[in-house]
Amino acid sequence: MRQPSCRRIVWVAFTKFCTFPFPDVLLKFFGLTTRVRRDAWKEKITLFILYILITAFFCIWLEFVTTLFCDPPKTFEFGDVYSNSSHYSSVHGQVFDWKKYGNSTEMTTQANLYPHLDLSPMFPTFMLLKRPNGQSYYEDSVIENCINGFNRSTQADNWLKYLLNHDSGYHFENDQLISCPIPGRRNITGAPCFYSQADIHQFNQYPKKGAISFDKNYVYNNCTLMPHKGLSYGRAYVILDNKVLDVTDYLQAATDIVKVAKGSYSRAFALDRMFLPLDLTIMLFINLGTDITKLFYNNIPNPTVYKECLNTLFYHGVVDGNTDEGCAHINVALWITVGCFLLYFLIKMHLTSLTRFSFIQRFLFKSNSNCLVMSSFVPYTLLFIPFYSESSETIRQTLDSLARTNYPDNRKLLFFVCDGIVKSQSDTKDNYLCVLDALGYSSTKDPELRAYISLGQGSRRINYARVYAGFCESGRNRVPFIMVVKVGSQKEEYNYKRAPGNRGKRDSMLIALSFLERCLDLAHHRISPLDFELYNQCYNLLGIDPRLFKYMLVTDADIQVQGDVVHRLVARLEADPKMLAISGHVRPANPEENLVTMLQIFPIFITYYSALAYEACLGGLTTLNGGFVMYRLWNADPIHSKWPKVSDEIVESLKRKPQKSATMLSSSSGTSSSSEESVSPHRRRQPDTISYYSLQPNRSVQPIGIHPTVLRGFAAPRPDTLHMENILLLGEEQYFSLVLLRSHPNHRFGFEPEAIAYATLPTHFFALQGFQIRNLRALLHIQIEFQHVAKHLGVMYWLTSFTKFIDTIFSMPIIVYLYIAFVRYFLYKDMAYAIIACSFMGLIGLHIFYLTLHRQFKYVMWFILYCLFGVPLFHVYFPLLAVWCSDHSYWWYDVWPTEQYGFRSRLHGIIDDPSRDQNQKEEQGMLVNRMRLIDFEREEAEKNALREKEQAEMLDAKFNGFTGYVGFNKTDVVSFPPAVQIRQHHQRFGSGGSSQSNPFASALDSPLDDDVYNKEDTSMFSTGTTESSTIQQQQDIDRDSCHYSLSNSILSLEPYHIDEELAEGRNAPVHSKIAFYYS
Q1: Tens digit of pLDDT for each residue in 282-319?
Q2: What is the phi/psi pair of residue 581, to 5°?
Q3: HSE on the CB side for 817, CA within 13 Å?
Q4: What integer pLDDT is reported at residue 916 of this predicted model?
Q5: How far apart, in whole angstroms, are the C-alpha atoms of residue 828 and residue 821?
Q6: Which of 431, 766, 782, 840 is the most exposed place for a label (fewest CB within 10 A)?
Q7: With contact defined as beta carbons under 8 Å apart, do 114 and 123 qualify?
Q8: Transmembrane region positions (predicted)?
Q9: Within 13 Å, how many C-alpha atoms sit on residue 951's CB side?
């Protein structure tokens, strides 16, 4: 067991502290029987608590901390304003310093006559109710909505007429207000009135010092009476939303004084003069001096309209402690915080939208697809397609799209990996049988099972697979294919609860990558039986040297590609040797199938285009999604001194010069002698072609994607913590891109927007939910892991990854807050929230503008649908569910339903059966032997020769005419076959010792045992001193017509003459035949 790091120890201690109320005994009672599952549950609870705390801190910052940076409106105590020493005066609750303006105008002259007094009577706001004769509407929009909006203009006219005729302070004559009450003497007229539009405009030009502030107790004790007989001047105030309203004039003109008894009077409501609703008028009348805010919002219909009306007509100041009033209008800290996110979204959207223009794409993504047409060398490309439960129709579409690409058929290979035997809900046969039917595979005999060490745990460590190979015909294309079918062990075959052979996508990728890595040095690397079968099928049956594959396109089985995809991706990689991998542009294949698929259109666009284009514009992609990516497997012309050293994987070259004729690939041009002389799938090679095949490593080739460091980093980690479970079990493809960047920090990723593929979207909501939760959990932990790598990659990588990490964490809180800001704006009309709402509405409008500019009108409708329903679903519901389910990463939810599970979740393929006894989990993991290629071929040849001999003896026993073979003796049996089949010349390299004593200990164990193999290599080269002598011996054998050819499939003792071979247009025996000495 490996030693935990210091960071891990601190994290585990912190999780125990956060979950101390839940001891292990209690968790065992609820079903968490293993320590790993209990630790994962504690880590999940800790992550959830941290996420809630971060969200809460973010909300507290926006709601409370930002108010500390607000500049609240300056207020003045009413006692200070109205003191005898004050030179201020007030007008409708606002304080003015008229003295500084002198007597420049009539207004300032009159105002300076009455310092430290309330000048509100000289500026009557009720004159807003005055309309010219014949005019049916009011000039002020607030009054218009309040009065005419509820058909109360007649009552308003009656109220105004009554007030002007019965208030002794106002002199109204000839439809004009002649004079107003003198400040300080309410019932005495004589002061000028300022109420015209010109006066209002002039009044608004003078700056206000601030609002006048009243104490609540003062309002409650002194502002509850109205003027009546015996009290010529009264004050009737109410408080609404911390604002003081003077309703004295309204209630006085809307009521009549009636005598109820001798010396006792009361007031009766005059309905014909009541321009406010009766319930509101009664509320004002019976709650004088109190705060009516709750009653107002709970009982008054249309509260927003009447609130604005009351503030326009009766505003008189504020109450003490109203410090948040300024933040509702100007909140700089809030604007800066939200503005940072707005700026990020704006930059990201602009860069994404600009990259969709063709001239911008030519500048940013410099790809010249014509370079491959003009070049004499087209790189070999492996098209890797893992599949599990996809429907046969979907896989057939993927197969046809890949086979019909305009890339040369003899330079591409379809490599399918069936990740376990399962049956789709829409099919009647197993998944691999459906694919074989689509490929046109006609043989009814199953290939031999081949073992390999998988990534499985315990009893699932050893896995078995079958290898199918042939040529797939689709349209006019005839493409070679290899399909690996993981069938599992015999115990898995009878386990009906789990799919036999299933090990996950990471294991499938490692099958191909590790096989290609070992092929680079077949002379020294030990290979597994599955690797040997892959090599045999690839080279001997299909006629393709697996070491020639320079690029590997990894695409999901539900993604269909356009015809020029492979061409474009290879062109970009060929043009830039520093590019590790390149991602294409994935679009939805079934966007309008139902509402579930429509909601996924813009998330797909954000994931597979927007995020990639944005990071590509900044100089480099951080991670790749993995569903549609082409990787670079090796580079030509490396600088040997800069090769990274990895333990014993880098073998020092033996002290001899590599023969020029034995090179696998050409040095600088990237071409290879083997590639030029390899067997074409369409025609046989010409007899004058000579091929020299060497198992020695080519020193002019530098591994990139198949470098031992990369494969070790991809295969070695174990899912033993919550963090690694989410990475290795859910984010397998993204983790491979992270390992690539970590192993090659001087390289980068790329994005090709013109390489377009189409993904089949989930049509069921629960399939979508499982898919999104899986992606979100993987994304969060991949971003956490990438922070340890980004600091070694440069400033731009660190900045991009950090902003992406912040986006991942805070996208949900900021979107929730935006919804709250919109609601607050529509309810309260606060300026601070109005600016935020308008800013993000402008962002949405800008996005719609770009879509319209590209004439994608249908996308406008989908974008509106996404904003209304998709945003809360993808950015609120799914993230919360993903955090809560983060300890269920070992449970896999299939997007494509199976006949066995349907839409239910299942255990991940590498997880061992939890019901097994812990003592039985570690089985014989050393049973799969790894040997060199020549040892495998010798063993296979001996088996086949023995089998042929037994068959011949059985036939001979039934034949009475002969007693044995003519001229046959035991020494003629081929016991030491050639290391590999070559066309004209055969080099024999023996392997001394027993390789079977060195079993395959791990998926990426050291392929070379220096203590053993150095001795073997020394003896090997001591026996064959020169290449010429070996070739001469081979030519002597060829002259005697003794030819050897190796295969694992069909073998025969049928003799072949050289003359017959040359007549048929070939210079070596056909595949799958072995010849004996013929005379």
Answers
A1: 999 999 999 999 999 999 998 889 999 999 999 999 88
A2: -155, 165
A3: 22
A4: 59
A5: 10
A6: 766
A7: no
A8: 45-64, 332-351, 371-389, 795-820, 832-853, 859-884
A9: 9
Q: Which two tokens stand for residue 121?
A: 């009577």
Q: How many whole angstroms separate alpha carbon 502 and alpha carbon 498?
A: 8
Are residues 726 and 780 in contact, defined by beta-carbon separation less than 8 angstroms? yes
Q: Which amino acid is at 293?
A: T
- The residue written with tokens 């209002």 in the block is 200
Q: What was the pLDDT predicted at 375?
A: 55
Q: For residue 694, give the 3-state DSSP assignment.
A: coil
In this structure, the dihedral spanned by the alpha carbons of residues 9, 13, 16 and 20, taken in order and rounded to 10 degrees, is 160
**Selection from 808, 834, 812 nearest residue 821 by Cα:** 834
SS (H, E, C) 234-301: CCEEEEECCEEEECHHHHHHHEEEEEEECCEEEEEECHHHCCCCHHHHHHHHHCCCCECHHHHHHHCC
Q: How large is the angle between the packed helices 505-519 and 708-715, nearest 10 degrees?
A: 160
Residues 6+ apart with CB under 8 A from 320: 75, 213, 214, 215, 216
Contact 516/471 with Cβ under 8 angstroms? Answer: no
SS3 388: coil
Instruction: Label residue 717 exposed, middle or buried (CB < 10 Å: 0-12, 13-18, 19+).
Output: middle
Cα–Cα nearest to 753, from 348, 356, 349: 356
Quick count: other Cβ atoms within 10 Å of Cβ 159?
23
Dump pLDDT digits (tens) for 693-726.
567 777 788 999 999 999 999 998 888 888 888 8
What distance in Å separates the CA atoms of residue 329 and residue 825, rounded to the nearest whole number?
Answer: 11
Residue 752 is inside which H or E element, if any?
strand 748-759
HSE-CB at 309 with a 13 A cutoff on CA atoms is 21
Give dist(CA 871, CA 863) in Å, integer: 10
Q: What's the Rg (C-alpha) of the chain?
A: 43
Q: What share of the chain is helix, strand, coil (3-state, %, to 5)?
A: 45, 15, 40
Phi and psi at residue 540, in whole multiples of 5°?
Answer: -80, -30
The answer to whether the beta carbons of residues 1065 and 684 sit under 8 Å apart is yes
Inter-residue contact 493 to 557 (CB < 8 Å): no
pLDDT for 942-990, tens place per residue? 988 898 888 888 887 776 665 544 544 444 444 444 444 433 333 333 3
759 membership: H or E segment, kind and range = strand 748-759
Joined together, the tokens standing for residue 451 give 């073992």
Q: What's the rounded mean pLDDT across residues 901-906? A: 65
Give the DSSP letter of residue 913. Answer: P
Q: Which two tokens stand for residue 171?
A: 């002199």
* Residue 664 near residue 547, CB atoms below 8 Å: yes
Backbone angles phi, psi at 21, to 5 degrees: -70, -10
Tokens read off for 86: 């004050």
Residues 87 and 59 sit within 8 Å (Cβ to Cβ): no
> Considering only 323-332, 445-454, 516-525, 585-594, which range has the smallest mean pLDDT?
323-332
Domain ranges across the chain: 6-68, 75-319, 338-367+576-625+702-896, 379-560, 933-1063
3-state SS class at 872: helix
Could you list the beta-strand ranges (E) of 424-476. 450-453, 462-474
* Spatial separation of the C-alpha atoms in residues 735 and 713, rounded to whole Å: 10
Beta strands in 556-608 (DSSP E): 559-561, 579-588
> Which residues are registered as beta bridge partners of 527?
931
The closest alpha carbon to 625, from 505, 467, 544, 770, belongs to: 505
Q: Determine the Cα–Cα distance for residues 12 and 115; give it in Å rounded to an integer.
A: 71
The C-alpha angle with vertex 902 and arms to 898 and 905, in degrees rounded to 5, equals: 100
d(Cα 733, Cα 737) in Å, to the nearest integer? 7
Cα angle: 289, vertex 294, 300; to 5 degrees: 100
d(CA 414, CA 435): 12
Q: Rounded CA gap, 280 and 295, in Å? A: 10
